[in-house]
Automatic annotation (TrEMBL):
SUPFAM superfamilies: 2Fe-2S ferredoxin-like, CO dehydrogenase ISP C-domain like. This is 2Fe-2S iron-sulfur cluster binding domain-containing protein. It comes from Saccharothrix algeriensis. It holds the Pfam family Fer2. It comes from the Bacteria. The keyword Iron applies. The lineage of its organism: Bacteria, Bacillati, Actinomycetota, Actinomycetes, Pseudonocardiales.
């Protein structure tokens, strides 16, 4: 059974017809040609397909496209405003926080979402004070980014980039 959906992807309205079983990742990559989110594990375990979905980070391989009709999707490509890289993207470049680059778009989207969550005061599992502001220690950053795996092991540089991107 098919359904027609509309998405705003990286600031552009997109309308498409999808099978009810189509994941948001497959709709983005296969139907709309948006290749920034990557298909890694296809089980929601690696984070390479992470995007900002209505402003919150989400893995798209587990999300059905029809369930997000009308949603706003921001990929790593859509974070750059007016051709200028997002501060987190700049920090990833400055800290060499990638090697092969496969996980980088998901890492960047997750970092932007994690920083927004911290600014909003949302605690993580390692946040010591649940009532105060969130201090972005390395442990806090590692916990918030733990859903995004890097096969190359660039974690030290990723933490440094997220710390720098928070400024």
């Amino acid at each position: 059974m098919d359904g027609e959906i509309e998405l705003e992807v990286d600031g552009r309205a997109r309308r498409l017809r999808v099978d009810n079983r189509t994941t948001l990742l497959d709709a983005l990559r296969e139907r709309l040609g948006v290749t920034s989110p990557k298909k890694g594990c296809d089980h929601g375990q690696c984070g390479s397909c992470t995007v900002l979905l209505d402003g919150r980070r989400a893995v798209t391989c587990l999300a059905l496209a029809v369930a997000h009709d009308g949603a706003t999707v921001t990929t790593a490509d859509g974070l750059a405003a007016g051709g200028e890289p997002h501060p987190v993207q700049e920090a990833f470049l400055e800290h060499d926080a990638f090697q092969c680059g496969f996980c980088t778009p998901g890492q960047v989207c997750s970092a932007v979402g994690a920083l927004a969550e911290a600014r909003a005061g949302h605690p993580s599992h390692v946040t010591p004070d649940l009532t105060g502001p969130v201090e972005l220690s390395d442990a806090e950053i590692r916990e918030r980014m733990s859903g995004n795996l890097c096969r190359c092991g660039a974690y030290v540089n990723i933490v440094a980039a997220v710390r720098d991107g928070a400024r």
